[in-house]
Design goal:
Radius of gyration: 16 Å
Shape: elongated
Largest sheet: none
Helix content: 55-70%
Order of helices and strands: HHHH
Number of domains: 1
Strand content: under 5%
Length: about 90
């Protein structure tokens, strides 16, 4: 759905495109946040503090990265290479 919104925005008037892309970004952040929260809730018993693990928010990715590192001793960014991920690297 997110990819479709972005594609629709590419062919739309500027104001419509801006709204479609903004909606797509909000949907992507919301989906990632929900996924991250569920993973931390399920894996929480393996952390040093299950209550704090269940409360991690992925709305701020750097903050979530630090909390996951602190509670699970896992760096969620370790598979990424510096400069390897930017908007141009995604094919929609």
């Amino acid at each position: 759905m997110i990819s479709k919104l972005v594609r629709l925005g590419q062919d739309a008037d500027a104001d419509v495109a801006e709204q479609l892309i903004s909606d797509a970004l909000a949907s992507a952040v919301s989906a990632f946040d929900g996924f991250g929260r569920d993973v931390c809730r399920v894996a929480g018993p393996r952390s040093i503090d299950p209550t704090r693990a269940a409360a991690i928010s992925f709305q701020n990715i750097e903050g979530a990265r630090q909390r996951v590192q602190d509670l699970f001793s896992v760096d969620i960014a370790s598979p990424l290479t510096p400069g390897g991920m930017d908007a141009r690297s995604f094919v929609l």
